[in-house]
Structure formats: structure tokens, C-alpha cells
């Protein structure tokens, strides 16, 4: 009898110890991670959140008719000695005509953590693009291997946007938005793609216009989704070619015809660039630092453009000349020798 009582005195504290131990395991996920139900649910929710992060970012940035403006940046584009490329890009929305509100529809896609943190600090719509271990955290010189990889990564991402049913304007950040481009773009839904040109031959439907993928508007439909699938599929078979070169080859082949795609080519009078300047400051909508190799040169010459734009706006009432003055893009011209 005494032994039974003794065992009962031993069992009771032992059961209490087991109860406390189980409670500690359940409510201390830091120490016992594998057994914590809270950690399991947190991990599952985090994975679901990542999967739909793009969907949330697009929904927040888009217009009511599911149109969004997209730009891609990395660390090199958000940092600078005095001003960065991103600073200059955003300045153009501030100084442009009817462009400030368009920032609400701008989704900044960040190729590295530094540019993502900068984007978040500026309180823009941001999306962190994962690039499967490839780091795009420095300036990639035009046509270098890493530059080509970055361009293809961009194309793959934009194809995902189309598949989610969003129309979009893609813009490089070396494009100044001096006026709202939407009034200059066709609202005809039968026009699938409207793309900028390095030089314009006078015919907006001519395939002989040399395209530039630094600025274009595309509508989401089964044909454009298929175009991006075919375009992306050519990446590994196009060594040494950037995505623009491959798209141009598809344009001059039979892909666009077979898909029934209608393409409009944008006049450099309105969608200007360093390759072919607009002749009319009263008509210009965007200015692209194309035909330029380095970020430093782009910033120098685009700064001159925006200074000239601000001068024009101050004196617009009495302005007699409709041309940009003294814009020779000298830094860009010299950039090719570096």
C-alpha cells in the first residue's frame, strides 16, 4: 500500500512535467521549429503570399481597365553621384504635362534588393523580381552578356503580366515622359502592339521602321500572349542577340502574320530619341536616350533635355521657336568610345 501511494506521488509530478513540456514545445516555435503549428501555417501563408505578390502589385498600380505602366530598374539605375536615372525619370513626370497622376499607375520592377528598398522608400508601387540566382546589381554595359541576360529576364516577366490579363506600357527609365502619351496612342483594340522606333520612315504601319523595345504599349489577348511565349522560347537559340533583335527577326518573318497581329510604329516627332530627335518641342511626348551606351552619358544628356523642357515651359507663351535648342547629345556620342 505504501509503495502504491509512493508511486502516485511520483506519477503526478511526472505528468505535470510532461504537460508543461508539451506546452513549451507548442508555444515556443523558435526552439522547436519542426513541431510548431504556428510556424507551419506562417510558412504556408508566406509561400502563398509570394505567389500572388505580382497579382497584388499589378492590381494596386493598374487603371480601372487593367492598364499599367511598367519600368525595370536595378541598383545602377537608382544610385548616382548627384542624381540617378530613376530620379531623372521621376522628375519628368513631375515637370511633364498631365503626367503627374500617371505615377499612380507606374509599377517599378526591381531586379535587386537595393533598388527595391529605394522604390519602397519613394512609396511607389514596387515588385521584387527574382532572377534565379543571377545578380543584376550593377550597370550592365550595352550588349554585354549580362546586359543581354537582363533584357531576356525582362521579357519573361512581361509575358507573365500579359497572361494575367493586363495591358501595359513598358518604358525604360532612360525615357523622359514630357507629356501624357495616352492621347497619342491608338485606342483601337485591334492594334495589338504600338512600339517606338529609332528612326521613323513616315509610315506608321511599315515593318521597315527600326523598332526599339525601350517604349511600347501592348494589349493582352491570346495572340500577344502567344507572341511572348514564342519570343521567350527563342532565348536559348539566340546567343549574342538581345531580345529586341530577336523580336525584329520575328517581325520580318512570318510570326506576326500567322498570329494575326497588328503593329503600329510610333513617330519620332512625338516619341523622340537621341537616334532621331523630334523637330517640334510642341509635339514631343517622350524622349528616349537611345543610341547611347552608358548610364552616366544618358544622365548628362537627358538632364540637358529636361532643362531645355523647363525653359520652354517658362517661356511657352512668347516662344517663337518650336525646336529643341543646342541639344547635341555629346556625352552619348562620346560614350561609344569607352
Care to describe what's here?
With 338 residues, this protein is of the alpha/beta class. It is 43% helix and 14% strand. It contains twelve helices and ten strands. The protein has helices spanning 2-27, 37-51, 53-61, 75-78, 85-95, 113-121, 145-163, 222-233, 243-252, 255-259, 295-314, 330-335, and strands at 67-73, 106-110, 125-128, 167-171, 175-177, 193-197, 211-218, 263-265, 271-273, 286-288. Strand 2, helix 6 (113-121) and strand 3 form a beta-alpha-beta unit. Helix 5 (85-95) packs parallel to helix 11. Its main location: Golgi. One of its GO terms (cellular component) is Golgi membrane. Its EC number is 2.4.2.-.
Q: Count of DSSP E strands? A: 10
N→C terminal distance: 98 Å
Form type: globular
Radius of gyration: 27 Å
Uncertain ranges: 1-6, 24-43, 138-143
Beta fraction: 5-15%
Following the backbone from N to C, one meets helices and strands in this order, namely HHHEHHEHEHEEEEHHHEEEHH
Q: Share of helix among residues?
A: 40-55%
Strand order of the largest sheet: 3-2-1-4-7-6-8
The main sheet comes to: 7 strands, mixed
Structural class call reads: alpha/beta
Total number of helices: 12
Oligomerization state of this entry? single chain
Give the topology.
Blueprint: H1 2-27, H2 37-51, H3 53-61, E1 67-73, H4 75-78, H5 85-95, E2 106-110, H6 113-121, E3 125-128, H7 145-163, E4 167-171, E5 175-177, E6 193-197, E7 211-218, H8 222-233, H9 243-252, H10 255-259, E8 263-265, E9 271-273, E10 286-288, H11 295-314, H12 330-335
Parallel strand pairs: 1-2, 1-4, 2-3, 6-8, 9-10
Antiparallel strand pairs: 4-7, 5-10, 6-7
Helix pairs in contact: 5-11, 7-8
Amino acid at each position: 500500500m505504501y509503495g502504491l501511494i509512493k508511486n502516485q506521488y511520483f506519477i503526478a509530478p511526472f505528468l505535470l512535467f510532461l504537460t508543461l513540456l508539451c506546452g513549451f514545445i507548442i508555444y515556443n516555435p523558435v526552439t522547436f521549429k519542426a513541431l510548431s503549428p504556428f510556424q507551419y501555417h506562417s510558412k504556408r501563408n508566406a509561400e502563398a503570399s509570394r505567389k500572388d505578390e505580382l497579382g497584388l502589385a499589378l492590381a494596386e498600380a493598374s487603371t480601372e481597365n487593367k492598364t499599367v505602366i511598367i519600368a525595370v530598374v536595378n541598383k545602377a539605375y537608382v544610385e548616382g553621384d548627384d542624381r540617378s536615372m530613376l530620379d531623372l525619370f521621376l522628375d519628368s513626370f513631375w515637370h511633364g504635362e498631365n503626367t503627374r497622376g500617371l505615377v499612380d499607375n507606374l509599377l517599378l520592377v526591381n531586379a535587386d534588393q537595393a533598388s527595391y528598398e529605394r522604390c519602397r522608400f519613394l512609396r511607389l508601387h514596387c515588385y521584387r523580381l527574382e532572377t534565379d540566382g543571377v545578380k543584376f546589381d550593377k550597370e550592365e554595359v550595352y550588349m554585354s552578356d549580362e546586359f543581354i541576360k537582363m533584357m531576356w529576364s525582362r521579357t519573361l516577366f512581361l509575358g507573365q503580366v500579359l497572361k494575367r490579363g493586363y495591358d501595359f506600357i513598358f518604358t525604360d527609365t532612360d525615357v523622359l515622359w514630357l507629356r501624357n502619351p495616352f492621347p497619342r496612342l491608338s485606342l483601337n483594340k485591334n492594334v495589338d502592339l504600338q512600339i517606338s522606333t529609332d528612326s521613323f520612315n513616315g509610315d506608321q504601319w511599315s515593318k521597315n521602321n527600326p523598332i526599339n523595345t525601350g517604349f511600347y504599349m501592348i494589349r493582352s489577348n491570346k495572340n500577344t500572349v502567344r507572341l511572348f511565349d514564342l519570343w521567350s522560347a527563342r532565348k536559348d537559340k539566340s546567343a549574342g542577340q538581345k531580345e529586341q533583335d530577336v523580336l525584329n527577326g520575328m517581325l520580318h518573318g512570318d510570326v506576326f502574320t500567322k498570329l494575326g497581329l497588328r503593329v503600329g510604329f510610333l513617330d519620332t516627332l512625338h516619341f523622340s530619341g537621341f537616334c532621331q530627335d523630334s523637330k517640334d518641342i510642341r509635339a514631343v511626348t517622350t524622349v528616349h536616350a537611345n543610341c547611347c551606351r552608358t548610364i552616366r552619358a544618358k544622365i548628362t544628356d537627358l538632364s540637358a533635355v529636361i532643362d531645355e523642357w523647363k525653359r520652354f515651359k517658362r517661356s511657352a507663351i512668347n516662344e517663337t521657336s518650336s525646336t529643341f535648342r543646342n541639344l547635341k547629345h555629346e556625352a552619348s556620342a562620346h560614350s561609344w568610345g569607352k
